[in-house]
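re: ur question from earlier - yeah i can do the single chain one, its not a big deal. heres the input i used so u can compare w yours
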Amino acid sequence: MRPFSTASGRVAILAPLSGPRAEIGQALVRAAQVALDTPGAPTLDEKDTGGTPQGAAEAARAAIAAGAGVILGPLTSAETAAIAPIARQAGVAVLAFTNDAAQAGSGVWPLGVTPAQQVRRMAGALQAQGKTKLAGLLPENDFGRAMADGLAQSATALGLPPPSLHFYPAGAAINVLNPLIREMSGYASRRGPLDAQIRAARATGTAEGRRHAATLARQPIPPAPFDALLLAETGEDLEAITALVAYYDIDQSAVRVLGPSLWAAPNSGAARLPGAWYAAPDPAARAAFEQAYTTKFSAPPPAIADIAFDAASIARAGGFTRPEGFSGASGLLALQPDGRTRRGLAIFEIQRGGPQMVEPAPASLSAPGV
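and the output i got, formated as C-alpha cells:
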C-alpha cells in the first residue's frame, strides 16, 4: 500500500444513507462535515452503502474512481471486510467505524472502541492496585470471546499470570451457570473445611461445642482464587450471574468486578454491582464537538457520531501513525502501523446514583493500559 496522502483533496465517507440505518448514516456524515469545516480541509465525498457489504464495496469502488485519498467508514464489520481488499489494491487507507479488531490490518484501522481496549485499560489500573489474579466468566459468542482475548492479551502485555477463563452458552439458564460459578470460585474447597469444623463442634453435643459452632458459622470463608472478575452480560442475564456471584461468596470488597462500557446504560443491570468498573471515553472530551455539531445542525450528536468526527479529523491532519497520537471527541487515540488502535479511556465505577468516573482518561500514550 502506498503511503497515505490527501493530495487529491478528496475524502470519501461510506455510510448507510438509505435503508434501516439511514438516520445513523446521516449523523456520521454530519459529524465528518463538522470536522472538515475548516479552511483548506479536504472535500468530503458522500457515498451510500445501503447498509450492506455489497453496497459498501460498490461505494468504495466509486469513491476510489472519483479520486478519494482516504475512506472514512463503513459502519459495520462485514462492510469493512468487503471494502478492505478493494482499498488496499488501490492504496487507499480506511478509517472504519466498526469496533471489530479482527478487521485491523495494513491500511485499515477500526476506530470503534473495542472490547480489548476497554479490558486493557482496566487491567492496567488493577495492576496498579496490586490485583493480578484475573478471571473471566463470559458467554460463548463473538463478544465474549473478544473480551476474553482482550483479558489474555492484557495479562501478557502487563506481565501478569494468565487469566482463568470460563465460558458458558450464550443465554444459558441458571442450572448451567450455577455449577460453573461454583466450580470457578472454588466454593467447595473454600467452604468445605469450615463446614467440617462446624459439624465436628456440633457433634460434641456440648454447650461449648454449640457455642464454638456458632462462632465458626459467623466466620467468612477464604477468598475466591481471583481478585478481578470480567463479565460481559447486561440485563436479566447479568442479574442472574450477579445473584450467583453473591451466593458463592465472591466478595466484591475483595474481587473487583469488571464489565463492558454497555454498563453505562441505566437499564444494563449493572446497578446491582456496586464498585464494579467499566472503561469508556471521558464524556468531557466530546464537549467541543458536541457544541459545534449542535450549532450547525440544531440537535446534539448521537454517541456513534464521535467516531466519524475523529476519523475525519485524522484525515484532515494526515500522518496517521504520528507518535503523539490524536486527541478527538472520544479522547486520546493512536493508530499503529499494523491497523491496531490504542486509546486512552477513563474508568467508571458503578455507584449509588449512577456510574462515576474514578480514573480520568490518560493524556499520554505512555500511561498504563493505553
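The CA atoms of residues 141 and 170 lie 6 Å apart. not sure if urs matches, ping me
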